[in-house]
Amino acid sequence: MKSFLIRIFRIFLTVILLAFLVTGGFLIYSSLQEFRPDSFEKLRITGKDSAQIGSKREFSFLIWNVGYAGLGEGMDFFYDGGEMVRPSRREFDRNFEQIKGFLIQQDTVDFILLQEADSCSKRSYYINEIGEIASLLPEYSYSFGINYYCRFVPVPIFSPMGKVVSGIATFSVYHPLVATRIGFDHTIPWPKRLYFMKRCFVVTRFRLPDNKEFLVVNIHNSAYDTGGIFRREEMENLSVSLRSEYEKGNYIVAGGDWNANPPRYKSRKIITGDKTKADKFIPLDSFFPGWNFAYDLFFPTNRDVDKPYKKGITPTTIIDFFLVSPNVEVLAVSTFSTLFKESDHQPVYLKISLKQIP
């Protein structure tokens, strides 16, 4: 009996040691492969050598967090309290075809800003979404700023996310001077940071005839941010960067997924019959006094993904919108009602005019 217990104890110790070695080896591998982008990184501009802006003063924009074509109406997500990691291949293909079909219809828009677009991820079946979208928009040049790169995300344990390469893409019918990825450089403890997004914003610059510049800024700020610590840091960073550009006389339009409600958002204004909610983060206009936040009051842009979408039951809100500098006039803004069929976000359109400064 004693020898049997000793044998069981040795087996137990061996299992513990192997588990320790495997875990330790995986953490070492993940650390060696960690995505460590520079704080400022010049991005490659791909696609057509598009036209110069010239004397044009009015421009149109589209923003859309496409949710890597994996967060359609039937999807929930494990990190938000759901159970699923990715949709079936059939659901993914349907979502992605609908996303591409919608974007083709918007090919008269001057600037298209996408968030959560994958280029080589297990969750999106290793489809190069950026490449396929670019092939459908041959008149556009584009840049791609990576904000999530991990060789293997190990959660959930029994169905891990695996490889993720994802980011934010800016498409333009005009030729940019430069596109720059600017990192937020959050302090996230090891080993958690190995498997989390490295948040950033992308600034694309265009030359104007009066030697000023027009800046188009693609935004995807932090979620899963208890207490709003990261979002406050991000807004302070954005405020310093963008306000300094405005003080130089430049024109700025920033848009995307802010993961916060815009100033003066009122959930009761939503007219779609959806259940609504409000975020308790501090007012964003405190970071940008005198600037204008542009959004459609009446339509939600985002829905919760703890369960599949059901109108009137699933909580929704507005977190996708635009910020424009005081020298930019908003002419129109509207949200496209896609009923969250292919993404947990809905796209938003903006038309603006650059004011003539005496």
Number of strands: 17
* Share of residues in helices: 10-25%
- Taking pLDDT < 50 over at least 5 consecutive residues as the criterion, the unreliable ranges are none
Taken from the alpha-carbon principal axes, the silhouette is globular
Structural description of this entry:
The mean pLDDT is 91. The radius of gyration is 22 Å and the shape is globular. It has one domain: Endonuclease/exonuclease/phosphatase (Deoxyribonuclease I, Chain A, 4-Layer Sandwich), CATH 3.60.10.10. It has a 7-stranded mixed sheet with strand order 1-7-8-9-10-15-12, with helices on one face. With 358 residues, it is an alpha+beta fold.
Task: Describe the secondary structure blueprint for this structure.
Elements: H1 2-32, E1 40-42, E2 46-47, E3 58-65, H2 89-105, E4 111-118, H3 129-136, E5 141-153, E6 162-172, E7 178-183, E8 200-207, E9 213-220, H4 229-247, E10 251-257, E11 275-276, E12 292-294, E13 302-303, E14 315-317, E15 320-324, E16 328-335, E17 348-354
Parallel strand pairs: 3-4, 9-10, 11-14
Antiparallel strand pairs: 1-7, 2-5, 3-17, 4-6, 5-6, 7-8, 8-9, 10-15, 12-15, 13-14, 16-17
